[in-house]
Amino acid sequence: MAILSKEEAQAILKKVLSFSKADSCEVSLNGSNGGNIRYARNAVSTAGQVNVMSLSVNSTFGKKTGSASINEFDDASLKKVVSRAEELAMLAPENPEFMPLLGAQTFQESKTYNENTAAMTPDTRAEMVGKSLGVAKAANLDAAGFLENSTRFNSVMNSKGLFAYNKSTNVSFSVTIRNKEGTGSGYVEQDFNDLSKMDVLALSKIAASKATGSAGAKAIEPGKYTVILEPLAASDILSNMFRGFDARSADEGRSFMSKKGGGTRLGEQLFSENVNIYSDPMNPELPSATWNGDGLALKRTDWVKNGVVKNLAYSRFWAEKKGVEPVPFGRSMVIEGGTQSLQDLIKSTEKGILVTRFWYIRSVDPQTLLLTGLTRDGTFYIENGEIKFPIKNFRFNESPVIMLNNVEALGKPVRTGSGMIPPMKIKDFTFSSLSDAI
């Protein structure tokens, strides 16, 4: 019963609202159905199937709101959860940032659901993992990975007439492959809405190649280098930056978007002219729901155009306070790129470093977005357009804002986590010390 149709979800939500005695009420109903396989040392260790559904009620009297949730759906249970939310509302303090519920809205039909992904079975997952294990065993390497798929629905209805529904699918895969001596490591990570786009065999071959190729790493001096960041590495460091496109934190002086002396950097040339960032729930490679938790419609939004900050995200509360229209934050961030492949960027580099990914990233200075972290799972020295040898990992100290001012070239974007990110060629990237980890 975990995946309800739009009509089935709507019927339950209407019933719940009919029990409400509050000034206003909002009800959300969500469910998911999926499975997973985990493997390590070339053998499956766990496998599971998850099927859940839950309902949450927010009841409001004046500016006082109470919340309650339940996973039972008979009439008595639905009445009980509504009553509980109303009891809690009467006990709650007034919310100084309370916003009245939105009325009926119009949303585009999303592209987040794929029948093939929804039809995945334990046999499908086992066959996919078998391909990955076959790559590792054939090369006398050790693999540890995780494959997961899910089908979800999210729905919300309120007493002012708003109703929204979205159904989605996802399949994700990651694997670390290492040599038997523990001196070389490779890693890949990928997810899609559409199962047909997931090539576990090809991804595992990449990880295996890096595991073999990164053995016998040499130490080179830390310093500023031209780097080629694979999309995963770029995504690792840029996800921290995306969260900074928030108007409130900028207005309150809490982010890199804050201007010294007050105000925000909206409209400023903050990045290199070849940097363009937007979000679009209808992007065919990175679709998302077309509405957010506030009940606002999501649409294509330019955040950075030719290096200039074009928009900041405004919640309904902050927009009202500032006298502007709300701007919901996008769920699907896209950095535009060119047509060059990762190999093309490597060939164009006289001297530099190829980074597979970063990890253990921590904030050093929120005002400049200075970050620190480590390279991992395959770091290589480039000379005269070729990978010459593996190198020991580095700790980096760098701000993605500075990084995007030092862009020399951007390749073809690929889906990486919650974004479409191109491989990047960056000059003067700062490595501060060596790391012995692989």
Describe this protein's structure.
By secondary structure, the chain is of the alpha+beta class. A 6-stranded antiparallel β-sheet has the order 3-2-1-4-5-6. The chain has a 6-stranded mixed β-sheet with strand order 10-9-8-11-18-17, with helices on one face. The chain has a 5-stranded mixed β-barrel with strand order 7-12-13-15-19. The radius of gyration is 24 Å and the shape is globular. It starts with 5 loop residues before the first helix and ends with a strand.
Shape: globular
Low-confidence stretches: none
Structural class: alpha+beta
Quick one: how many beta strands?
19
Quaternary structure state of the chains depicted:
single chain
Beta-strand percentage range:
35-45%
Q: Cα-atom Rg, whole angstroms?
A: 24 Å
- Give the CA-CA distance, first to last residue: 45 Å
Mean pLDDT: 96
Helix content: 10-25%
User: Could you give the order of the helices and strands?
Assistant: HEEEHHHEEEHEHHEEEHEHEEEEHEEEE
Largest sheet: 6 strands, antiparallel
**What topology, given as strand order, has the largest sheet?**
3-2-1-4-5-6
Number of distinct helices? 10
